[in-house]
Design brief:
- It contains 3 helices and 3 strands.
- It is of the alpha+beta class.
- The chain has a 3-stranded antiparallel β-sheet with strand order 1-3-2, with helices on one face.
- β2 and β3 form a beta hairpin.
């Protein structure tokens, strides 16, 4: 999921990421989570069982979401989905056996 940050939102975004790292906003709904931050945008990446269902629920009501709700005041525009266009993962077992 992607959202444009307000011009004054970056510092608060960094604080929220720090809190997230400390486990204050951790969700057990996802196996993996990542937050990417650029000067203008924030990208939330989630993996886990039923991730599509959980993400639809977040997009339908982001204010009530424990993962996204505290970010809403920082957004300059709507939160929207970004679908995977490319993904690659190296097979580590294959690399180990060939070395």
């Amino acid at each position: 999921m992607v959202a444009r940050l307000r011009s004054d939102g970056r510092e608060r975004a960094l604080e929220l990421i720090e809190q997230h790292e400390a486990g204050q906003h951790d969700s057990t709904d996802f196996e993996r989570q990542a937050i990417f931050l650029s000067p203008e945008d924030v990208v939330f990446y989630f993996e886990g069982p039923d991730v599509e269902k959980t993400l639809r629920a977040i997009l339908n009501d982001p204010v009530r979401s424990t993962e996204i709700g505290h970010w809403i005041p920082l957004f300059d525009g709507p939160l929207h989905a970004a679908r995977e266009a490319y993904y690659r993962e190296h097979d580590t077992a294959e690399r180990r056996s060939s070395s």
